[in-house]
Amino acid sequence: MDLYEYQGKDLFRRVGIPTSEGRLATSPAEAREAAHELRGPVVVKAQVLTGGRGKAGGIKLANDPDEAEAHAREIIGLDIRGHVVRKLWIERASEIAKEYYLSLTFDRGVKKPLFMFTTQGGIDIEQVAAETPEALVRLHVDPLEGFQPYHARRLVFGTGLEDSDEQKQILSIAAKLYEAFVSFDAMLCEINPLIVTPGGEVRALDSKFTVDDNALYRHPDIAEMRDTEAYPKEERAAREKGVTYVKLDGEVGVLGNGAGLVMSTLDVVALAGGRPANFCDLGGGGQAQGVVDALEVITADPQVKAILFNVFGGITRCDEVARGILEALTRMTIALPIVVRLDGTNAEEGRRLLTDAAPPNLHVEPTMLDAARRAVELAA
Length: 380
Ligand code: GDP
Ligand code: MN
What we know:
With 380 residues, the chain is of the alpha+beta class. The protein contains 13 helices and 19 strands. It is elongated, with a radius of gyration of 26 Å. The two termini are 35 Å apart. The structure holds guanosine-5'-diphosphate and manganese (II) ion. Guanosine-5'-diphosphate binds at residues 43, 51-54, 59, 93-94, 96, 99, 122, 192-193, 205-206.
């Protein structure tokens, strides 16, 4: 789960990483009020779950509440690479002498957290890595050993940073970032830029924070930070119903049981010349409620023109799935064409149940390829 800048900064503050004081605003009036409370120049920052906001016009300096309100008016509603701005973070403007970069992420190859630090912050880190790789210090931390002060010293001295006052602050910030990473079960903690003010104070000016979804049960307060309104309505529904759902951009809605089968169904749809609109994994069961939930999620996506049901009965019996589908169709009406392929345990009985009782928009096909072709044809 990705956090907004203001949420990440909240977690930074909890471990003692210095940030600027700020307020959340959802309207130009609130932005004005926030600027008034903060006094002096502020920066108006679009809160979207994507980077590069500065370049996209989502970050503006304001000298007084009037200007903050005017900037807020321009930034709210702005589309930053597909993310529409609904919230702003208004914070006390910082004077910047230097911009550094500090992050902590997982290096899956090495199975260890990886620190990256460079004094060439502010810009894209990929650019630094590509153009001046020697300026980027990379350092793994053995999770069993944990963070040790020598890690931070290697980071700081590795960049040739000489100012002892800066060194001290960054050593402490690196330790706190590791603490945040571990204690909040993060996948990524990135500070870009980590600034040095003209007075020599080091502070996190931005935050990119990703928390492991699988660990959210341990952090109910962070789980609550999820901004459900930022998700399309079918994704919200999927989350509420506990349905595994992934949005794609074609026109065939795919429903299968088991991740492997679902993945190959996507391939077969492509082979048949179509494009999947999304997919849902029914998992093990084929009970009516599971089918209703999945169908509700899939059909909430307006791009879906046909639905392809692909079920392989192993432990799950196809006759049970067929009954589930039939019962689901008595509980909800679906005008879209539905193509069903059943194979495996009790497949024949399942197919018979469907051909006998299914509505005319439901088509039963014997093989996966035939079913995909039919669905693609009907979606066209
Ligand atoms: P991003 O573009 O989404 O990464 O957003 P950032 O929060 O990193 O801001 C982008 C850039 O805006 C920073 O690198 C700074 O140069 C500038 N900026 C952000 N906040 C301030 C501020 O308080 N004062 C000044 N002078 N510049 C800022
Ligand atoms: Mn940034």
